[in-house]
Structure formats: structure tokens, C-alpha cells
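Hi Q.,

Before the meeting this afternoon, I wanted you to have the 6-O-phosphono-beta-D-glucopyranose prediction in hand. No need to reply - just skim if you have a minute. The sequence and ligand are here:
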Amino acid sequence: MHFKDDFLWGSASAAYQIEGGASQDGKGPSIWDSYSEIPGNTFKNSTGEVAIDFYNKFEEDIELMKEMGLNAYRFSVSWPRIMPDGQTINEKGIEFYHKVIDKLIECGVEPILTIYHWDLPQALQDKYAGWESREIINDFTQFCALLYKEYGKKIKYWVSLNEQNIFIGLGYIKKLHPPKVSNYQRFLNANHIASLANASAIKLFREMQIPGQIGPSFAYSPTYAKSEKPEDVIAMENAQEIDNFLWMDVYAKGEYPQIALKLLEKLGLSIDFQEGDKALLQAGICDFMGVNYYQSSTYCDPNHKQETLQAGNAAQVSVVSDVQTIPTDSLYARADNDYLTMTDWNWAIDPNGLRVSLRRIASRYGLPILISENGLGAFDTLTEDGKVHDDYRINFLKEHIIAIDQAIDDGCEVIGYCTWSFQDLFSWLNGYAKRYGFVYVDRDEENEKELRRYKKDSFYWYQKVIQSNGTEL
Ligand code: BG6
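Predicted structure with the ligand bound:
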């Protein structure tokens, strides 16, 4: 195995998905609090109002991390907990994260802080339409300034925006996230503003000379061509430009990819570039690329697309969006990959895809990579004696760790691996049915029960992986 001694064996989560305490100690509402209150927006109308109550149980939860020997924990701070209206400081919110960070450090777990994992203060959505207004760049930067000042001496790894491609894509194209819009030009506008905000956060990080590293977490799905047919290869490359390079080039090089821009222009779409934007993007280049990897994506010529597509139809229990077509559908179409099996939610299982991802990113950007999420969402069963035999999760993670090892041997620099997730938590689209954790949390959509925690078989397995630095799989 090729893992360095300081390799971070971690796990990840996000505030809205675990904390609960939706209005405790002065927290303001986020767009997810409001959105999930509207019937039909989430699976079985589930919400993160209580989630798994990490807000009140964080000490007990971090003790579990210590017992496992986890050496890194990626969590996000809730902007409306720290600034209820997006601008005014709530001391209790600041204090909460100091306590979480201190407890992690005391337990030997390196805290990795995600600045934004989708829970925008509702007040900023109401005030100026959130990510659609350039006003957010300043507010977000002020929020970051506060975080750097408060936690800058304790945190070595910072994640700026989590999956900008997903929260903007699902919010402004697919109507699966707030504000539930489907308009490709508005998507590009909001996305450009988010890219500027991300760059501004990184620029400030440098100016304040924060002694750590910062980068975004990008939801990366490597593109495959359905066949060797040249038209399929072009479709695959189009998808790569529009779905990947459009973000990663901005993060790593401070500029948009020229082919993607031209493809968009031909569709009558454009980026709203204003004076100063170029300089800001270039001042906001990341230290590492955070990669959230779940699956690869296969593409074919959109003029000959298969009728039997499964990939992307996120299974039995997903919220269904009513979006029919998007402009880029003329450039590439999703296709099944006949060589891959699927999860309970029809996500393709593809450990080699992680190796491909790491190699492509290392090769195009030459940056270190933090795998900031990877995991298997499954239906787990709690046995009568309080066990969860999740050998399927162990196999999934094992194969992905082997792929990482191979990628390191191929020449990629990988800082660490954060599984998604440490505990079961709220899934934005799938409520509590889709479980990812090493720790089972006993609740469902309808009933919070007592939120008891149970260690799954995978808990003990990952414990050994960490102890052996990846040699005992
Ligand atoms: C990532 C997000 O997209 O995938 C997480 O950063 C999310 O917040 C995870 O929970 C898994 O997605 P899902 O839809 O299966 O919960």
C-alpha cells in the first residue's frame, strides 16, 4: 500500500443533515428549513429540523469517532446558526463550533471545516435572491472573515463551497433544491456569482495569512463514452467540458475552459463577465481539489440515445423533478454502463472510476486531492440484538480504497479520504431511508424515536483500516 503516514482517514457530514436544533440558541432559518416545510419538496416530507440531533449530542458522537480512531472529520458550519440573518453575529453559534472543534482536537480527530454546505440563510434569499445577486459575494466573504478570525488557529483544512455544481445545478436547472428554478441562463448567472464568492473567500484566506490549506469540494463524476463510436466520444467530451471543467478549471486555473464557453455560446448562453471578475477568479486559486466521488457517468451521442436508460433515475424513493429538457441535452445524453452494477438507488458502483478521477484531476491540474466524500447509500437493517451487518458497505469502501492506492501509485497526490458519512443522516432527496454511516441512527422519516446510535460492522472494519494505515482491508 502507498498511503503516507500522515494520510487522513476521515469521514464527512454537513450541518443541516446532522445538527437539528433548527431554532435553538438563536439560529435563523436556512433555505432548507423553509424548503423542506413545503409538502412534496422532500421524500415523505422529511426535514432536518431534528436530524440526528448532533447539536445536542456532539460530545457523545465525537467520543464514538475517538473510539473508532478516526483521524479526520469533515463537518460544515451553518451560516444561519452563526449569522441568523446572514449578516449579524450570533455568539452562541460561534461558541457551538468552538466546542465541536475543541472536542475533535481533544479526541485526536483533525477537524476539516466546510464553510458552505447548502444551508443559506433564508434572510439572504428573501433580501436579494441569494446566489443570484452579486451582493452575496460580500456577505459570504464577511462570513468567511469571521470564521477565519475565530477558527483560523485551530483548523488546518478548509473546504470553501461544497458541490457548487450540485447545489446550483439542482437549484436552478433540475428543480430539486431551493429555489426550485429551471432556467439554464439563470443557472449560469448564479453559478458565476458562486464562483466569484468562492474565489473571494480564498483570496481573503491568503490576505489574512491563515496557516492552512483551502479548496472547494467538487462533485466529480468521470465521463465515459458508451462506445468507441467517435460521436459517443465527442458527447463524452462535451459532458466533461460542461459538467466538470466548467468548475474545476475556474477553481484550479482561475479561468473558464474555452471549449465549454464556445459550446454554451452556440446554444445562446453566456457567462455574465464583468470588470474585475477575471482578476478575482485568478486571485482565488485553490490549494487542493476536494473531490466528492460516488459514481462515473456514461454518455452517448444524443441523436442516438438509448431508450432504456437507468442511470440517474434515483430509484424508488426519490423526489421526482418535472424538468423535461435542458439546452445541453443536444450535446450529450446519459447512457447505461453495461459493465457496472448499481446501488439500491441506481447509482453506478465503480471503484475504478475513482482511480480515473484522481488521475484525470492530477494530470490536468497538478494539484493535491482531498477525497472529501465517498460512500454507499443503502437500506440497512438493524437486527434485534442491535447489529447492522453491512458487508456490502465494507466491500464498496474496500474497493474504493484499493483504487485510491493504485492512483497514488500512478502518481497522484492524495491528502486523505473522507467517507460519507460517519453516522446515518438526513439525505436531501431521500430522507432517512438512504443510509451511509458507520453508525446506525435509529430514526425514520415519520418517527425520531430516541435517536439511538448503533455501531455497524463497518465501524469495526474502518477502525482496523485506520489502525493499519490502509494495509488491512
Ligand atoms: C453529496 C453531498 O452530494 O452527496 C451530501 O455533498 C449528500 O450532502 C451526499 O448527502 C449523498 O447524496 P444523497 O442524495 O444520496 O444523500
